[in-house]
Automatic annotation (TrEMBL):
GO cellular component, one term: plasma membrane
Keywords: Amino-acid transport, Cell membrane, Membrane, Symport, Transmembrane, Transmembrane helix, Transport
Protein name, per record: Amino acid transporter transmembrane domain-containing protein
Record organism: Rhynchospora breviuscula
Biased composition (Polar residues): 1-16
Compartment(s) where it occurs, according to its Swiss-Prot or TrEMBL record: Cell membrane
Amino acid sequence: MDNDASENYQFSSRTPSDVEFGESQCNSDRFDDDGRAKRTGTVWTASAHIITAVIGSGVLSLAWAVGQLGWIAGPGVMILFSFVTYYTSALLSDCYRSCDPCTGKRNYTYMDAVQANLSGVKVKMCGFLQYINLIGTAIGYTIAATASMVAIKRSNCFHVNGKDDPCQISGNLYMIIFGIVQIIFSQFPNFDKIAGLSIIAAIMSFTYSTIGLALGIVQVIANGGFKGSLTGISIGLVTPVHKVWLVFQALGSIAFAYSYSMILIEIQDTIKAPPPSEAKVMKRATSISIAVTTVFYLFCGCMGYGGFGDLAPGNLLTGFGFYNPFWLLDIANAAIVIHLVGAYQVYCQPLYAFIENWAKQTWPNCKFITNEILVPMSLSKSYNININLFRLTWRSLFVVLATFISMLMPFFNDVVGLIGAIGFWPLTVYFPIEMYIVQKKVPKWSTRWIWLQLLSTLCLVISVAAAVGSVAGIVSDLKVYKPFKTT
C-alpha cells in the first residue's frame, strides 16, 4: 500500500472489516467497484441524515437569537445563512470524487477530500477543527437533551405540587442516563447502520419544532399581536456592551443551527453508486433539507420572538416557565431527547471511524483492536452482533468524557454559539471554497474567484464575532456557576 492509499485508508469512514477484497470482484451485489461494502443510500436517506443533523437543538435557540437581532436582522440573517450553507454544500459535494463526478476516485471523508485537493498543513488543520467541532456538538447535545429531561420532570412537578413549588432539579442524573444510552447506540459500527435511527430522529425533530411553533402562535394570539422590535432586545434591559455580545452570540447560535458541512462527505459516502452521480443526489438532498429547515426556522424563530418579545427564552421549550398544557410540553421534550440520541450518533460516527481506522493502521496485528467477537442475541443467527473490544472501550470512554464536560459547563446558549462559531467559517465556507477553486481550476482574480473570496471573508468576520460573543457569555456564566451543585 503506497503512502497516498495509506492516508485515504486511515481517514475512511468505513472500517476495514467492511472490506473483503477477495470477494469484491466476484460478488458485485455486495461490493462497490473499489472493494468496499455496497452503498444503499438514496436522496431520502441522505435527506434524513441532513435533517437529523440540521434541525437539532439549535432550533430551540432561534427565538432568542431573533430577539437579540430584531425583526429585520433576525429573519435576514437566517435566510443569509441558509443560502450560504446551500451554496457551499453544493461546492463541497462536487469534491466527493476527484476529476470525473461518476468514475473519479472517491473521497470517503471530509479529510480525504481536503487531502486530495489541498494537502499539507491544511489537512491537519481541517481534521483538528472538524473533530473539535464534533466533540463540541456531542457536548452541546448532551446539555440540550438533559435540559429537556429536566423540563419534563419540572413540568410534572408543577402539575402535581402547583406553581409555588420551586421544583429545583439537578440535571446530573439525567446527563448520566443520556450518556448510558449513547454508550449503547455508539456500538453501531458506521453510518450505514444508523439510517433507521436517523429517520426516527428526523421525525422527532419535526415533532418538537412543530410544537414549539404552535406554542409561539398560541402566545401571539393570547397577546393580541406580535411582540418585539425592529432592533431586538432594548438597551436598558441590557447595557450597550452586553447588547453587542448578545448580538454576536446570536450569530453563533444561528450558525450552529445550520451547521452540518463537517459530516456532508461522510453522508454522501452512503449514497449508492452512480448513475446518477453522488454529487447530483447530494445536491438534491441538500436543497430539500435546507428548504424545509429554513421554513421551520423562520416560523419557529419569528413566532417565538413574536410571542415572548424581549423575554424570549434561550431554549423555547424549557426556558420560559410555561408548563401548560404540561402533556404537550412533555411530548415535545421527549421528542427532543429521542432526536438528540440519533443526532449525537450522526455527528460522532466520523470521529469514531477516524480513531478506529487510525488505530488499525497503526497496530494492525493487535487483536484487541482488530478482532470481532460474535455475541448471540437469540437462537436465530440473524440477531447475532459483532462486538469489537477496542470500539466498545474507546467509544464508551468518549461518551463518558463528553458527559463529564457537559456537567462542568451546562450553558446551552453559550456552548451552542461557540460551537457554531468554531465550525461555520472553516468547515462550512473556507475549505469547500478552496477545494472547489482547486478542483475546477478557477483562475485567480477572475470574477468568480473574487466573489468566492469575498464570501469567505464575510463569513470569517461573522465567525470571529460569534466566537467572541460566546466566550464572553461563558466567562460571565462561570462567575456564578458551581459545578455539580447548581440546579
